[in-house]
Amino acid sequence: MNNYACKLLVVVTLACLASGCGSGGPRLYKAGGTVTYKDKPLENAMVNFIYEDGSAAAGLSDASGKFELNFLGRTGGAAAGKCSVTVVMAAPASSVSVAPGGKMDVSKMSPDEQKKKMAMPSPQTAIPAATGTPAVVLPAKYSDPKTSGLQFEIQANNNNNIPIVLKD
């Protein structure tokens, strides 16, 4: 999957989150975890779990690296199944409202604002952090499910606390 496809997947997932599309579908199980890079919590990382059928669950990490997954616009978890995982840096915290637990609040944005706010940079692009600290640039391999090396399975229970450890 190229960078454009990854960006598109994230934008579509977030658009579904905003619109609340789909009240049916598979049962969801509480799922999330912590994402770290170089042994430090990674803030504003968009973590995408991509299922074999092409559906996805996503979550945005908070300052402590914690994220909660939401499946196809449905909050509260992810469907059981095997997933390839990507991690890309999201827009700076100052441009996206994030509630406690890493849930993105796009409910008060128009669809055009959502698209603008959710536009994802290439993984090689450094994004200045809102605090003025140096930006985090992740290795490009983590933006593609074929090269990330990250594979996880969401279990049919509520004990899906997934540690995602990124290294150079």
Question: TL;DR of this structure?
Answer:
With 168 residues, the chain is of the alpha+beta class. It is built from two helices and 13 strands, in the order H-E-E-E-E-E-E-E-E-E-E-E-H-E-E. The strands form four sheets. A five-stranded antiparallel beta sheet has the order 7-5-4-9-12, with helices on one face.
The number of helical runs is 2
> Roughly how many Å is the radius of gyration?
14 Å
Structural class: alpha+beta
Low-pLDDT windows of residues: 17-22, 95-104, 106-111, 114-134
> What share of the residues lie within helices?
10-25%
Strand order of the largest sheet: 7-5-4-9-12
Query: First CA to last CA: what distance?
Result: 20 Å
Overall geometry: globular
Order of helices and strands: HEEEEEEEEEEEHEE
Overall mean pLDDT stands at: 75
The main pleated sheet reads as:
5 strands, antiparallel
Percentage of residues in strands: 25-35%
Description:
With 168 residues, the chain is of the alpha+beta class. The chain has 2 helices and 13 strands; from the N terminus they run H-E-E-E-E-E-E-E-E-E-E-E-H-E-E. It has a 5-stranded antiparallel sheet, covered by helices on one side. Strands 2, 3, 6 and 13 form a 4-stranded mixed sheet that branches. Strand 2 and strand 3 form a beta hairpin. Helix 1 runs antiparallel to helix 2. The longest helix has 17 residues. The radius of gyration is 14 Å and the shape is globular.
